[in-house]
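Complex record, two chains
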Amino acid sequence: MPVVVAIPGPLQPYAGGRSMVVLSARCHTVGDALVALGDEYPGVRDRVLTEQGDVRQHLNIFVDEDNVRFARGLATPISDGSRVTILPAVSGG
Amino acid sequence: MPKKASDSGVLLLVGTTKGAFIFRASGARAKWTMSGPYLRGDPVYAMAFDARAGRQRLWAGTGNPFFGSSLLSSDDMGETWSDREEHAIKFPTESGLALKQIWQIRPGPANRPDVMYCGVEPSALFESRDAGKTWTVNAGLLGHEHRVKWTPGGGGMCLHTIVPLSDSRIGVAMSTGGFYRSDDGGKSWRARNVGVRAEFLPDKYPEFGQCVHKVVSHPARPERLFLQNHWGLYRSDDWGETWHDIANGVPSDFGFAMAIHPHDPDTAYIVPLESDGFRCVPEAKLRVYRTRDAGKSWKPMARGLPQEGAFESVLRDGLDTDTSDPAGVYFGTRSGKVFASRDEGASWEMVAKSLPSVVCVKATVLAAPSHAKRKVATARRKRKTARRPVRGAR
């Protein structure tokens, strides 16, 4: 099964209006998945990752139910059928 | 060139921590109408209006806390804002830096209508040679040997002020870092802070490291610069080579905002604050101070402004003038009030009283669009709305 990425509402205009993107590329880590997503939708990439490739401070990335901040960050492994979810944190102002 | 207050109208761009607002008035500036918020929810620390080459283009720098800082433009007075797939302002990967915020958007000189500048955090200058379509970081400043010793001020380590001085000379100000000038069109930069005090350093007069809050100059006399420092009010008459204290008769020389009169290089405006420990106007009286003699003396301009219990503060880009004659002067406060003067500061009226915290005020006199320009604007609007994504007033 392919990896699926859930796109938050504010970023859906940059993903062709999609709330879910099914990745065709083979991905072993969250970083791989975000690169594959960014290749297809650079507008999403720029809003999720800084130009240095880091996840923006007030965004969280989950693999299934787990926040990758508490795992191995972008090196967190994923497998076929994983669901990667991008969500704004509860910070802001 | 002075513009008689006419029916062409005045545009007041107000950036706040929760979006942008646009105020418009006829040339008489007697009644203002407000629209917005545009870019709703996003902090808008930088705005600009580009009227060169027949444009009527608004620019805004947003600092979305989740998705990063974006540079947007509007050719229909804020009705729609063009966004881009990819962020326009990006540091090169090899720099190791990532954009935090756009602090300043500055159209270049009138004789170079496609030149634009952006000042950002972390401190860097971005330049465009195609009216804002593409941007590149200024390599001379990015690779400056002082960079490793610049340290963040309260607002972050930002390049917040850009002062085009001539075709080859340009100045920038950073907090902290100080004032830097290039004499070769931006290829190389030198710190120019002689005489500017750094209260917070053991060496009070270092070559660089000052916390300059704002610098302004007048195009008719570009060698003269006024500088509002983190403690200290200065003037230079030699392009910033040397600075001299001009805090003559102000209740405090601490402050952020500073603006130059559009037609008189001897006239400037500031809003002093009590201290860095209490960043409110002295005595809780909201007063703009004006000099008519290049800083030899300053007078409070308070008619129409609250003089009791006004614990107000005006940030570095919260004060501006328009190019009418008599000049309009405008400022916004952190408490969300906007005041306007149509008589060069002699008297004031409140234009808005309950906006989100105001971080940026930019005023401009609008040229009445010709029929041809209207056609171009309409065509641009149609092209723009056909593209996606487009953000409107939500």
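Note: Residues 383-388 of chain B have pLDDT under 50 and may be disordered.
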